[in-house]
Specification:
mainly alpha
Length: about 150
């Protein structure tokens, strides 16, 4: 059975991942045509996968913070940049996403990758900063248990 602090930490990570998914859904719906095209459904698995990554990484980032891992914020930023690039590349390769009659230039694609990388880094930084509750919870539980 999980300790109360671990359960609380997992609940916080779950709340963060659900908030992440809902926030990105709202942002993407705001930028989509109304009503959204059928191709918008192809983005939903990416949102779900991103929320799963947020859940997992929030717990990892909290552990890094609790253990005072060196350069953990930079590692989170780098992970976010890589995740942003991976998501952008995967989404751009899907045949049903976007307007099929528009073929972006190489410069536009590089800009798209740069923006996605930046957004990924900022998202990871936000998850890292919000995971402080997990680290504080784990430190407090160690103190209260006498460890």
């Amino acid at each position: 059975m999980l300790a109360p602090a671990a359960m609380s930490s997992k609940r916080r990570a779950l709340a963060l991942s659900i908030t992440f998914a809902l926030a990105w859904l709202v942002v993407l719906l705001a930028g989509a045509d109304h009503p959204p095209p059928v191709g918008f459904l192809g983005i939903l698995p990416f949102i779900a996968f991103g929320a799963t990554l947020v859940y997992w990484r929030a717990i990892v980032y909290a552990c890094w913070k609790a253990q005072s891992q060196p350069r953990s914020m930079l590692r989170a930023l780098a992970e976010g940049a890589i995740a942003g690039l991976a998501f952008a590349a995967a989404i751009s390769l899907l045949p049903w996403v976007g307007e099929p009659s528009i073929r972006p230039s190489t410069a536009s694609f590089v800009i798209w990758l740069g923006v996605a990388s930046t957004i990924g880094s900022l998202s990871a930084l936000l998850v890292y900063l919000l995971s402080i509750g997990h680290a504080l919870g784990s430190q407090q539980s160690r103190r209260s248990s006498g460890a």
